[in-house]
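Appendix B. Raw example, untouched.
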Amino acid sequence: MWTIAKLTAREIVYKRIFLVILLMSLAYLFFYALGTYYAGGKVVDNSLDVLARGFLSTQFLGMGLYFAAFIISLLAIFSSIGSISKEIESRQIDPLLSRPLSRHSFVWGRFVGLSGLLILYTTLLFVGVTIINQSIGGNLKADVTLVQLVQAWGLFLLQPVILVAASLFFSARFTTLNSGITMVMLYVISMIGGFIEQFGAMIKEQMMINIGIMISLVFPADSLFRKMTIALFDSADNPLSLATQGVFGSVSVPSNAMIVYACLYGVVALWMAVRAVSTRDL
């Protein structure tokens, strides 16, 4: 398993696309820092009331993390969807499995290698966005504690790991193209469901909230981000914080049971990927 994990990580690192992604990520952090610096410099101490300043500060940090999560999710999907199907289609899996290596070890190795690399990348973006906000945000610096940051970071890491597990399942069952389309559609549907649930909570429409929750059960990626914002901004029990969340916050708070469900979702997806490869006629 560890051999496949190392091989998987090495394959991604040595590809030219990895360097492109790294450079584009640095460019994203640069432009986010540029916007944060100039926006923070325009706000003086007495120019905004407490509510308006709180709204803008959470929006800037939430916006940075939201688009970082979007970038990470796309990277997780596109780096995983072909990790099994391409090997099968090109018959490159035959020499690997001809060695004393079980099929489930091959899948687990892919998962460990991809997840490990994405955890490092996710940590880089999370730390980069939060450092920018805290160091050069000026009067728009979000008021967060170290405990909140650690909790949010842990939840932030769950999303790419679960995406990798789900992508490996589709990669084990379908072609690379079909897997990619399915995963992107599931991720987009999850985002739409999250916005429906939050909008329903704002206008107090229970049917919209229920629809959003049902969509989250189909794919819980957006629920993880919403729970992360709750941990970061501590808005669940603070009316003032609740009023300053904006579009990147959570009026309808995902429960802890949803986080447990998301983790089980990833475990089941990975188990089904292992089972699919183990029973597939290669």
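End of appendix B.
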